[in-house]
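Student:
Attend to each token:
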Amino acid sequence: MTNRITALSINAWQITPKTIWTFLELSTSDGCTGIGEATLTGQEAAILAVARRYGPAVCGMALTDLDALEASLPFTNLPAAAFSSALMQAAWDAVARSQSQSLVMALGGLQRESVPAYANINRRTLDRSPTGFAGSALDALAAGFTSFKIAPFDCLQPATSGAEFRRLLDEGVQRIAAVREAIGANCRLMVDCHWRFDEAGALDALEAVKDIGLHWFECPIAESPETVPALRRLRSKANALGMRLTGCETEIQRAGFQPYLEGGAYDIMMPDVKYAGGPKEMLRIADDFARYGVAFSPHNPSGPICYAASLHIAAAATNLDSLELQFDETDWFNRLIGNALPPVVDGVSVLPASPHGIGVSLQPAVLARLEKVGSWTVTA
């Protein structure tokens, strides 16, 4: 009998005052379940609207051809991509579980036994002083990380200029320098700019951090096909100063990355399984990167389901740089999945111990303690 989707549900949960995690779960006719993450904080209503429009048609569809299922889904904008990518995560999870396989084996097998992971310490750093950033880095170092990322340029905007630009830039550089001093010269340090500069400002920032020893400089300016020439110039500058340029965390499917690959915009790109199309599409994207000599580093600053899926994808990719982990934002991260995710040790993580699907499941009794801020369900 053909295995089919029999039920879909999406629930958005308030995790912290600033953070909402959105999960999609599906059930199948063979009794298996699968889960994906659709977190896109601030756009939960838009994701639910996509689910209401497209979800009923998905219910009842066969899971025998996941490429065909993916081709039937909408990827027209980020909320649509979040719904569709989460559904593909859940479908791959369910199929792997039904075959008593881990996700990485269902995707084609291991390229590595352990995955290099870096700590994004930005959200847990409430004290935004250089000392606060350094303290967060030291906590992550003690927890087993050897690579770290911060977003130090608070309040800067592309239009900021003059003395105000110089003040905010200098404050950011002080934060970066404090983290470097705390972690020492042998650890990787990355900086996320969150598109806060124009090209001239980004060039100034690269000069300002050139002696700190950064592994990469991320998302310095707005990303669009029109800004690719500026990104290429910034990449050349960064490379000349010993840094890599990194970006593309919200692109959708392979086509979304193609202008940046063809234009030589980045050394490393950061597709997100929540938006890029799901697990198999992530590996297709990684293969595209390899053909252009671009490294693959999944964007992963959200909840535990995205992290678990991304661990499997990273273990299956051939050209991995490292995998992001939002460090210590909230203890719900581990509690929601019964502490089933392995810790990072000496800068790497192994896969979850369970050999089925992504290896973790949400714990209903723990979820019941959270506030649900959005919900939708359909059955076949």
About this structure: Residues 156 and 165 are 7 Å apart (CA to CA). The domain at 106-350 is CATH 3.20.20.120 (TIM Barrel). The chain is about 40% helix and 20% strand.
